[in-house]
UniProtKB/TrEMBL annotation:
Organism taxonomic ancestry: Bacteria, Bacillati, Bacillota, Bacilli, Bacillales
GO MF entries: transferase activity
Protein name: Isoprenyl transferase
Active-site feature positions: D35, N83
Function as written in the Swiss-Prot or TrEMBL entry: Catalyzes the condensation of isopentenyl diphosphate (IPP) with allylic pyrophosphates generating different type of terpenoids.
Cofactor(s) needed: Mg(2+)
Family: Belongs to the UPP synthase family.
């Protein structure tokens, strides 16, 4: 039996409800480190991939909630450049997840006006994963609702090195001088050049670190951590994180 042949939960997430009192000061860009899938499965005596499978179902719920709340961008950390070190069956399953997710959920994403984008080195993913992602991007390219930005084969340090190399080349070509390099120069070379920085960054599962995720972009993000494992992080807690964000005073280093 191939381990990744877990059945897909095909039910529509029609039951996602959001609170109506949350409309003021919604973070425009929310980034999430969806951690704890493995532990969720282990606690139930299941293989780790069962946790990823359940985690994918939760992606459906949180995407729906974010869209209803009129969040503009939701960036989800689906696979890091370091995740290739995991056992091959787990990597294989994680590469299969976007295919299953998009095969089953794309019509709903299209219907709900969600636009799919990715950040990361997509060209190094297996061909069928790339194909599914490209198809989703093409089919949702004109959508104007939530941007579902999937960080896949993404690593922030790699992203910065890649950008610095591009900047060096442009300096060598004489497009601008070293003295003209500003924060904006680097920002414009990152995968996220078309997006505003995250306002709120959430990490589930009790780990208190950024794990090479959006290190530059999260310079002034509000951080929110929870012990809850990703598959159990449902709409209510997502809203709790947003409520907490709404109480914060963002000073960006000022007073
Ligand atoms: C970290 O949990 C989670 C991941 C490496 C994968 C996250 C992927 C999904 C939730 C599904 C992606 C969905 C789409 C749409 C592509 P972990 O395995 O590190 O958990 P652990 O710390 O408990 O072991």
């Amino acid at each position: 039996m191939r381990l990744f042949k877990l059945p897909f939960n095909n039910k529509k997430e029609k039951n996602v409800e959001i609170s109506t009192d949350l409309s003021e000061n919604i973070p425009k860009h929310i980034a999430i480190i969806m951690d704890g899938n493995g532990r969720w499965a282990q606690k139930r005596g299941l293989p780790r991939i069962a946790g990823h499978r359940e985690g994918m179902d939760n992606v459906k719920r949180i995407v729906k909630a974010a869209n209803l709340l009129q969040v503009e961008v939701l960036t989800l950390y689906a696979f890091s450049t370091e995740n290739w070190k995991r056992p091959s069956n787990e990597v294989e399953y994680l590469m299969r997840l976007p295919i299953d997710f998009l095969q089953h959920y794309l019509p709903e994403l299209v219907e709900e006006n969600v636009r799919v984008q990715t950040i990361g080195e997509a060209q190094d993913l297996p061909a069928n994963t790339q194909k599914a992602i490209l198809n989703a991007k093409q089919q949702t390219a004109d959508n104007t609702g939530l941007i579902l930005n999937i960080a896949i084969n993404y690593g922030s340090r790699f992203e910065m090195i890649r950008s610095i190399k591009e900047i060096c080349e442009e300096v060598q070509e004489g497009k601008y001088g070293i003295d003209e390099i500003t924060e904006n120069t680097l920002s414009h070379h990152l995968y996220t050049s078309q997006l505003e920085d995250p306002d709120l960054l959430i990490r589930t599962s009790g780990e208190l670190r950024l794990s090479n995720f959006l290190l530059w972009q999260a310079a002034y993000s509000e951080l929110w951590f929870t012990e809850t494992l990703w598959p159990d992080f449902h709409t209510e807690e997502f809203e709790e994180a947003i409520r907490d964000y709404q109480k914060r005073k963002r000073r960006y280093g000022g007073i």
